[in-house]
Specification:
This protein is 27% helix and 27% strand. The chain is built from four helices and six strands; from the N terminus they run αββαββαβαβ.
């Protein structure tokens, strides 16, 4: 007995279509809702520009976008890598062009970032970090 199995492409296209309700409004499919909530969604992505001077005296990390609990770990990694460039490097984390979740405001302060990075730094006393906080 032969059975018909729909192709994966057919089911994928059906899953992403919006559904019209009786009132004429459309609602998102579960797949669209989960894609919008995913950390890689464009409104949650961070755009980061790292600049430095020729002597590696200072590294300026410009952050744009929304800082979330997922992306804060990436910021910590950037600060740690920037501080490893040279023993005398001063790191400026500029969050003035970004937004942050209210629950993360305290985690984006300089002492909090330093406390998270202390166990992972080779020379913890040498990190010179200045944080420009996001606007309120």
């Amino acid at each position: 007995m032969k059975t018909h199995t729909p192709s994966p492409m057919a089911s994928a296209t059906v899953a992403t279509k919006t559904v019209a309700t009786n009132t004429g409004a459309t609602r998102e499919s579960p797949r669209e809702r989960s894609m919008a909530a995913h950390p890689s969604a464009s409104h949650l992505k961070l755009r980061i520009l790292v600049t430095t001077d020729a002597d590696l005296d200072s590294v300026h990390i410009h952050v744009h976008g929304c800082v979330s609990p997922v992306s804060i770990h990436g910021l910590d990694l950037l600060v740690r890598r920037a501080s490893a460039l040279s023993p005398d490097t001063s790191v400026i984390l500029d969050l003035s062009e970004s937004q942050a979740w209210d629950s993360l405001r305290a985690d984006l302060q300089g002492p909090s970032i330093l406390a998270r990075l202390q166990p992972t730094l080779s020379a913890p006393g040498r990190l010179r970090l200045r944080v420009i906080p996001p606007p309120d």
